[in-house]
Amino acid sequence: MRRDELTKIILPEEEIPKFWYNVQADMPNPLAPGLNPQTLQPLAPADLEPIFPMGLILQEVSQERFIEIPTPVRELYKQYRPTPLIRARNLERVLDTPAHIYFKYEGASPVGSHKLNSALPQVFFNKQQGIKRITTETGAGQWGTALALACKLFGLEAMVYMVKVSFYQKPYRRSIMELYGASCIPSPSNQTANGRMALEKDPETPGTLAMAISEAVEDALSREDTNYSLGSVLNHVCIHQSIIGQEVKAALEMVEDYPDVVIGCCGGGSNFAGIALPFIPDKLAGKKIRLVGVEPAACPTLTRGVFAYDFGDSVGLVPALKMYTLGHDFTPSGIHAGGLRYHGESPLISQLYHDGLLEAVAVKQNPAFEAAMLFAQTESIVPAPESAHAIRYAIDEALRAKEEGVARTIVFNLSGHGFLDLFSYDKYLSGETEDVELSDEEIKRNLGKLPQVP
Amino acid sequence: MRRDELTKIILPEEEIPKFWYNVQADMPNPLAPGLNPQTLQPLAPADLEPIFPMGLILQEVSQERFIEIPTPVRELYKQYRPTPLIRARNLERVLDTPAHIYFKYEGASPVGSHKLNSALPQVFFNKQQGIKRITTETGAGQWGTALALACKLFGLEAMVYMVKVSFYQKPYRRSIMELYGASCIPSPSNQTANGRMALEKDPETPGTLAMAISEAVEDALSREDTNYSLGSVLNHVCIHQSIIGQEVKAALEMVEDYPDVVIGCCGGGSNFAGIALPFIPDKLAGKKIRLVGVEPAACPTLTRGVFAYDFGDSVGLVPALKMYTLGHDFTPSGIHAGGLRYHGESPLISQLYHDGLLEAVAVKQNPAFEAAMLFAQTESIVPAPESAHAIRYAIDEALRAKEEGVARTIVFNLSGHGFLDLFSYDKYLSGETEDVELSDEEIKRNLGKLPQVP
Predict the structure, then answer these.
(1) CATH fold of B3-16+75-112+242-447, please?
(2) pLDDT digits (tens, 9 = 90+) for B382-410
(3) Hey, which CATH number is domain B114-235, 3.90.226.10, 3.40.50.1100, 3.40.630.10, 3.30.230.10?
(4) Sequence-ordered list of residues with C-beta below 8 angstroms from that of A65, at least 6 positions apart, any chain
(5) Element (H, E) at A438
(6) List of chain B residues whose C-beta atoms are within 8 Å of the C-beta of residue A80
(7) Across the interface, which of A112, A373, A381 has its CB nearest the CB of B110?
(8) Which segments of chain A belong to CATH 3.40.50.1100?
(9) DSSP letter (8 states) at residue A83
(10) How far apart are CA A131 and CA A254, in angstroms?
């Protein structure tokens, strides 16, 4: 079929990647080592064993370019992968742009987001090590939902600490996690010492991902049969998500196209890493390709944070990582893109951004919703508010192409659908969503509390 | 690829059918004519012109076997079709059945159900005739959502009367319709004379599809630029949905399989017609294949109704049709499968059922939810409560295959996902869903009010 005829490009099932891609093999500058949060000395793999299985720890530090996907994981990927790469023909027409706009539809996963790509292998490697129960945090709820399902499919228990503001903004997220057999409570909770302390300090806190992580890790440390699982940020998560970008490359080859710009929304970094990092070898080989992460202006980690060691959680239970950060005490406002409310950024994304291989922009909430509405009314899919950030930039890029009268190929990751975010659209439609402006002082205040690394 | 290896069978985009299939060309006994609701005399096509465009009226009475799909409709089908046919490998494993279980995943449509298959052509033919605004009713909200999107894509206004009990059970259905630019109000409403009368009679009524139809038709009759649109029951709707079954046949050929039994849940009949009727020619040619409609025990139109002329709405504004019916005054209890709460049944399904070519069974709400939970926890997709009825029967059939030690191929239509039905799952999980038993008297009472046809 000619490249200009197809709307959906769907790879055959046998072309689901057999290997994950690990960008560490190709990085011009290696990652700085993680530090033990107590001693602030470089981490030994054994430091991670109380909460992670060895299979994932080995991936975390692996320098291998390709890591084989275990058969049971790949069999479950077949329930929804390869996801379609869709040409946004109606959107192109309405924008009257010479650009080709494609989106990779990760919302096609049964949980409605890309998060299942990492939940399945994480639970698999935990099960392999005899773990019976997994704790985690969730922001918007997409990660918690994915982990709940993956635990059910592999026969493990799941316990999800959900950031309080999202728990109430997205009430049916709890329902779907329970339907998949998981427990889900708002964080901070009174189930952990860290949660109780946070509630004492501020009973009205909207919660943060960093606090929910502290609670989930505390819970995991307290039980022998329990491990902790993280849905973004860490290297092994970015590795798992690499199947997104690998599929995008193969699908574009089918229609003889190649991206000028690849876009992902960016919170902890997993979906941006997933779509963008498999293009790093091309970029290093001299291909002219831009890789752009889009973060919320209310939580502008890459664009206004610093590249420094910081804790991933709010109380310093997990390793200190060198990353772009707004400080582990930063509490972003309760924007509707709950999955992007994280103070830090994946160390892989951070290092590559620092080295000039990735770009970043920040987008305000209302322009993101406006782009999401246009997308829904032309391409029919209601996007998650997180993904709306990527759409905003893709549309702006297509409009620039129009202004300049130059064709270009734009690809973005539609990391999730918005069927469980209609509450947020209601707020937007009734004019109740605010565009928060962060002052320089507010950003500086939290950056003053970074750990002092020797 | 060998038939036993694939999990998802996805036809190439160019194999989206180019023609709808019209079973009227193959029926052993023709449909009884529709009757003018005032005179109860056979309907002339002109009787339908005040509310339907000529393109759809011609389809309604067509005896042609194949009807060409207009290019603009087929282009929009490409946004989500062909939908995948998925082998339920995990469910098979858990049931330990020798049966092959496949499901056609119509929830893959951007609105989450099969309804868009008919909304797109209905709006297209209305636009072709210069209509600017379309009214409709919706039960669970799936049809209203599809019509809202189709109107937006073709640039028409949409006005949706939503059955009151569903409006409050599924609050975010209104949000998504508004996001697509439609207006949506609970029915009975005070916007129409029929609605006001119904509210006077019983301000607490949960509403019925029949009443919502009366309101939508009254609205359409009152404005020159406005037509009415129906999401099920009528011949042209069943014709549009035939792309489901046609795709199923082609996909099964790819893996060299053929169904012993094809299953669809059954309210007005459109998704059951869609998956089942394209197999009628095979059955007439002697193939041993069972086609089973699954209705809710709380609204058992085929299994406990009568085959007689009745009105499609509650006040007799739309033609009287010969169909299985529980009487146009029947108010089904507020079960969560709101899309199956209709007193009548598609005349096509009714006639073919009467002639022994289709089967029907009734399923109670709790066993349907129980089946849906097992499905979600093995096949990962959360089904709409309507589709759960089909799953219940598919599982029972797979268990019978196991008991009998005989392999068989079971195919059902997963007509929609349940992301907007989590309220209902909450109720089920907290033990608040009831199994209604209808007495013979209750059924007889409403059947006493059928129109007396001369």
Answers:
(1) Rossmann fold (3.40.50)
(2) 999 999 999 999 999 999 999 999 999 99
(3) 3.40.50.1100
(4) A21, A22, A25, A26
(5) none
(6) 8, 380
(7) A381
(8) 3-16+75-112+242-447, 114-235
(9) P
(10) 41
Chain B residues lying within 8 Å of A10, measured CB to CB? 10, 13
A92-to-A259, A396, A397, B296 alpha-carbon distances in Å: 16, 12, 12, 44
Residues of B whose CB is below 8 A from A254: none
A50 CB within 8 Å of a chain B CB: no
Q: With contacts defined as CB-CB under 8 Å, which chain A residues touch B379?
A: 79, 110
The answer to whether A111 faces chain B, any CB pair under 8 Å, is: yes
CB–CB of A422 and B172 under 8 A?
A: yes
Q: To the nearest whole angstrom, how far is the Cα of B333 from the nearest Cα of chain A? A: 24
**pLDDT tier for residue B45 given thresholds of 50, 70 and 90:** confident
Convert B222-253 to b/e letters by CB count within 10 Å (16 or more is b).
eeeebbbbbbbbbbbbbbbbbbbbbbbbbbbe
Strands B100-105 and A261-265: unpaired
Sites in chain A below the pLDDT cut of 70: 1-4
Min Cα–Cα distance to chain A from B424, Å: 10
**Whole-number pLDDT of residue B3:** 55
In tens, the pLDDT along A276-311 reads 999 999 999 999 999 999 999 999 999 999 999 999
Chain A interface mutation, best of B6, B8, B157, highest count of A Cβ atoms under 10 Å? B8
The pTM (predicted TM-score) of the whole model is 0.96
Mutate to test the interface with A, among B142, B169, B175, B247 (most CBs of A within 10 A): B175
